[in-house]
Design goal:
- Helix content is 76%, strand content 0%.
- The protein has one domain.
- The chain is an all-alpha fold.
- Helix 2 runs antiparallel to helix 3, helix 2 crosses helix 8 and helix 7 packs antiparallel against helix 9.
């Protein structure tokens, strides 16, 4: 794993996640005030901001790195992966509604999961592809993957979140207001965990180098 802050700016990406949370919740409150509690378009916008808002900002970060001519880094690959993973839940959401799926009940638990985690899945795969490119073989890439704290944290949240969403729906939770939609997306969006792990690792590396 690279030791340079300029190559591993995961700490900066944590701020992007918080901005997405704030934007999604604020929009949810506004839409509820306007009487659009069950608007499908409203839920799409709220979930995109609360569940994927950081992906837009992280994508801008990756683009900025590319325009600056910076060398390819894990953080940049992570940002591109999240940006590319954003569109999948939009298609699944609208397709599910057209097919008559109860998006407010237990059977619709996968929709907020995809909004909050599809970009994380994309980031994880993009990170693995980056390791394959830098290591030169899948064996070495997978070996490094199993020792990469950020990618392991990413894999953990991808696997844990759907279970939590399913149990919440079984327990009776239903996103019947836009505020609830935003809060569900925020709770499911543990995408801040991998960047936080990266930021903490950067701090530990700096301390060791002193």
């Amino acid at each position: 794993m690279e030791r340079s802050d300029s190559q591993e700016e995961f700490g900066e990406l944590v701020k992007f996640t918080l901005a997405g949370f704030a934007g999604g919740l604020a929009l949810g409150v506004l839409l509820d005030f306007l009487g659009l509690q069950l608007s499908g378009i409203g839920q799409w916008l709220v979930r995109t901001l609360a569940g994927e808002g950081e992906s837009l900002l992280e994508g801008f970060y990756a683009l900025r790195q590319r325009l600056r001519g910076a060398g390819g880094s894990m953080a940049e690959a992570y940002g591109w992966g999240k940006l590319l993973g954003m569109a999948a839940p939009w298609l699944v959401d609208w397709g599910s509604r057209r097919l008559g799926v109860d998006v407010y009940g237990v059977q619709g638990f996968y929709i907020p999961y995809l909004y909050s985690m599809s970009d994380q899945i994309g980031a994880n795969l993009s990170g693995l592809a980056y390791l394959r490119r830098t290591e030169g073989s899948w064996v070495k890439a997978l070996s490094r993957y199993t020792r990469h704290p950020v990618l392991l944290a990413s894999l953990a949240v991808v696997l844990i979140v759907p279970a939590g969403l399913f149990l919440a729906r079984v327990a009776g939770f239903s996103p019947t207001t836009q505020r609830y939609t935003a809060l569900e997306a925020i709770a499911a969006n543990l995408c801040w965990v991998p960047p936080l792990v990266g930021a903490l690792e950067e701090r530990l590396l700096r301390r060791r180098q002193r």
